[in-house]
Every structure is written in C-alpha cells, then in structure tokens.
C-alpha cells in the first residue's frame, strides 16, 4: 500500500544507512565523547555559523520536551498556538516532565503572533498564575504554512523585550528553508531564535533530532536534563553519524527539495478536480484538502492518508524525500476513474 500519511512513513536514505555502517567499525568512546559526535557538532555549528550547544536525542518529542524543560522552572509556562505539536501530539509530555504549563491560543493559519502572546503578560509577577517564559513556534507549521524571516525576527524581539525566549520546533525545518530559499543562518541564527529542535527523521534519517541552544549560558545544565530524560545514548555515534551524512553535500536540501516539489506537483494535480478543494496554498510537502466522502473511501482502498475531520472531509497528504511522480500519478488515476 502506498502511503501519504506522513513523511515518517518513508524509508531511510541510502547515504544515511551507509554512514551508520561506517560508524560501526571498531570501538569508540561512549555517551557522545566519540569522534563522530564531535565532528557532527562542528558541522552543525558551521551550518548555523555560530558557536552553539548541540545535544542529540532520538525523537522530536524528546528534543522539544528536554530543550524546553531546560529553560523552564515549574511555575513558568510556554505560550504556543492550539495546533502546536507540544500541545496536541506529545501526550502532555512537557507538562509531566517539566511541571510547567502550556498556554495556548487559537492558531492563525497555523501561526502565533506577538499580539496573541500579549494577553498572558498581565500575569507577570502574579504568584497566582503561571509565568509566561517561552514562545514556541513550529516551522513548518502543523497546517503546512510558513513563518517568514521577518515574522520570526519580530517574535524573537518581542520575546526578548519581555524577558522571554523563542523556541522553534523544527521537525520539518529543512522543508521550510528550501521553500523560502534561505539558509539556516538567515532563518535561525540571525533572527534571534534561542532554542531549536532540529529534525532529520522526517527528511531521510532513520532516527535522531538535535537540541540546539544559541546561548550556551542558557543550556549549561542541558546535559543533566538529557540524562534525566533518558536520552543520553551510550552509542551516540550512530545518531551523530546520520547528521554528518545528512549535512554532507547538502543531502538535507536534496531530500527536502524533492519532498516540496512533489507536494507542489500533487497539489497542482488535485486542483484539476472540482470534487477536491485545497485548503491552503501548498508551500512545502503537506497538502490539506476537502474531498467527497465516497472519493476518500475509494482512495483509501489503495492509499493510506489521514482524514483530519470527518465532518468537513478534510484530509492530509504528505510527500517525502523518496516520493515520485509515479506514486502521485497512481493516486490521481484513482480519482480520475472514480465516478
């Protein structure tokens, strides 16, 4: 069965697998003291053109929860939009692990703006209420939209003016960088982001994410949070080796470009059918569309994808680094042949 459920359903790029095999030769130091991890940290620092702290973990949830917990005290809170992954898809992990609260506002096309955060600032100094400390955004957002560089910079400046930090959930950050035709430095380092969950799993890696702190003073205790969070891998080189291959020869860019291009091609083909209405302009590799119920049923006989809302027949289709036009054409052919 073909899958358009998520880019998590894709396989692993051959270069990533080769890097894992290469890292398997001989012995090396454990717990991130190996030469492979040191090289991976250096390459990530070069990518962002900044001296940064990097902490490798296995999953995106771990990156978000451990990173955010490292900046929060139990009486402090994270402000995000209602669709944020930390709010919807992480089973309350942040609140359980950190003891801190999530404060959320209705999303505006997947995004949050400084005007949305202002309503929580009245609680500053009030011991009866959680203290807002971090603004968290997702890039790409959970509804497939993108923050512009100016929007990110505006949020960062607002956060810093109010003694807060800006965190970015970058599970699909490579797709965003490609879509906006920019660089990691311009999007993250130069805008003032304090903390990044740097994802690779959705873009061709087997597993592994990186918590990146752009202020080493803030992350001085992150190693303890990672250990308590059960994410200090003894054989960490098998995660860091993937990041070396991922960054080498811009593999991240090649993978994200294909995923985005296939998303655009998919949306263009879908838009030709009056029975299908695209919800948003497709900017990366996620397509949201309303389809007639009988068409959804017919398509799901051959393809797996999410139905997000049964009432409005809203579906989500996601392309991956290894999606081909032939995969999409098969999907389109079923629509064409469904009366």
UniProtKB/TrEMBL annotation:
The Aromatic amino acid beta-eliminating lyase/threonine aldolase domain is annotated at 4-292
Keywords for this protein: Pyridoxal phosphate
Write one Pfam family the protein is assigned to: Beta_elim_lyase
Fetch the InterPro entries from UniProt.
ArAA_b-elim_lyase/Thr_aldolase
The keyword Kinase is assigned to this record = no
Q: Which cofactor does it need?
A: pyridoxal 5'-phosphate
What is the protein's name according to its record?
A: Low specificity L-threonine aldolase
Q: Which organism is it from?
A: Tissierella simiarum
């Amino acid at each position: 069965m073909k899958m358009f459920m998520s880019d998590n359903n894709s396989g692993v790029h051959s270069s990533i697998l080769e890097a894992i095999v290469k890292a398997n030769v001989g012995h090396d130091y454990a717990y991130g003291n190996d030469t492979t991890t040191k090289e991976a940290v250096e390459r990530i620092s070069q990518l962002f053109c900044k001296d940064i702290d990097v902490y490798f973990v296995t999953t995106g949830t771990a990156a978000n929860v451990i990173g955010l917990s490292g900046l929060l005290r139990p009486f402090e809170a994270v402000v995000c939009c209602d669709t944020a992954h930390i709010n919807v898809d992480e089973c309350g992990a942040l609140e359980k692990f950190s003891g801190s609260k999530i404060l959320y506002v209705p999303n505006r096309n997947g995004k949050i703006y400084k005007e949305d955060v202002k309503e929580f600032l009245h609680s500053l100094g009030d011991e009866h209420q959680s203290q807002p400390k971090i603004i968290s955004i997702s890039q790409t957002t959970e509804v497939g939209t993108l923050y512009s560089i100016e929007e990110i910079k505006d949020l960062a400046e607002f956060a810093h003016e109010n003694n807060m930090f800006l965190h970015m959930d970058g599970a699909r950050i490579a797709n965003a960088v490609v879509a906006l035709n920019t660089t990691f430095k311009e999007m993250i380092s130069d805008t003032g982001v304090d903390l990044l969950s740097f994802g690779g799993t959705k873009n061709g890696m087997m597993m592994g994410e990186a918590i990146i702190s752009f202020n080493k003073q803030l992350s001085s205790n992150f190693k303890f949070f990672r250990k308590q969070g059960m994410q200090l891998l003894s054989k960490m080189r098998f995660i860091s080796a993937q990041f070396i291959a991922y960054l080498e020869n811009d593999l991240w860019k090649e993978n994200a470009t294909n995923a985005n291009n296939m998303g655009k091609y998919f949306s263009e083909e879908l838009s030709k059918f009056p029975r299908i209405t695209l919800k948003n302009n497709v900017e990366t590799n996620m397509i949201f569309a309303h389809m007639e119920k009988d068409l959804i049923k017919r398509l799901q006989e051959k393809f797996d994808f999410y139905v997000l809302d049964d009432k409005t027949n809203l579906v989500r289709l996601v392309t991956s680094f290894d999606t081909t036009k032939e995969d999409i054409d098969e999907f389109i052919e079923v629509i064409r042949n469904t009366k």
